[in-house]
Amino acid sequence: MRKDISLNNGVVPLHHQVYLVLRQQIEEEQFAADTPIPSEHELSHLFNVSRITIRRAMDRLKQEGWVSRSRGRGTFARRPAAPQAISANLRGIFENLVAMGLRTRVRLEEFGYVPAPPAVAEKLKLAPGATVQRAVRVRFHENVPFSHLTTYLPEDVGRQYEERELSETPLLMLMERAGVKISAADQSVSAKLADTMVAPLLGVETGSPLLWVKRTVFDQNDRPIEYLNALYRPDVYEYHMTMSRVEGENAALWSPDSPRS
């Protein structure tokens, strides 16, 4: 039996926390396909929660195809059919972003010109309260929503295209058509929980873990021309990087490989 699992009695309901832990364990193949997973009674002791909480988590796992129940035999882990995950390589990032934009579908949720929030103004090197274009989009892969994108552009850059074009053409292509030459980006990747606004748009429960990407894009004059705040479903989207061991001055280091043609 595995050691007890501690849950956080915070914003995320306990049954959802149990669901997330069990789903991850199934994804990681911690349960053999031909061996029943622990019973509700055993799981309630393992997670230190009521059997009702365990039952709610198990009912959702069964509904989504993560487990199957066999009378007299028990409950077994399984992997539901799912669309192949969208993969983005951290090298050749601009080419990959455009390619992903062309092979997926986007729905524009919000579009307008607003005063820049302080953090956005700082990222775009604008005066506090300067007007920026703000757009919120949800991107789909095989009709499954996988990313929630909030972009901010300086007003003069945003005015180079119309609202309807943002629903049809990748943003990077729109900017390049307008004569903006993109040269670099500063990006960070971390994690965040889905809030009550993002969760329904991505088809997940409030509190579900999401991949959180923040990116500032620069033109050839080192001017920041886009700030992106993006949230991705980790079950449909992943980042990929190939690395090699190389010898440095004082030690062997891991270094990203050049993109393969």
UniProtKB/TrEMBL annotation:
Protein name: GntR family transcriptional regulator
Any GO BP: negative regulation of DNA-templated transcription
Pfam families referenced in this protein's UniProt entry, alphabetically: GntR, UTRA
PROSITE patterns listed in its UniProt record: HTH_GNTR
Cell inner membrane as UniProt keyword: no
Presence of keyword Transcription: yes
SMART domains: HTH_GNTR, UTRA
Signal peptide: none
Domain HTH gntR-type: 12-80
Alphabetized GO MF terms: DNA binding; DNA-binding transcription factor activity
Matching CDD domains: WHTH_GntR
Alphabetical UniProt keywords: DNA-binding, Transcription, Transcription regulation
Family annotation (PANTHER family): MANNOSYL-D-GLYCERATE TRANSPORT/METABOLISM SYSTEM REPRESSOR MNGR-RELATED, MANNOSYL-D-GLYCERATE TRANSPORT_METABOLISM SYSTEM REPRESSOR MNGR-RELATED
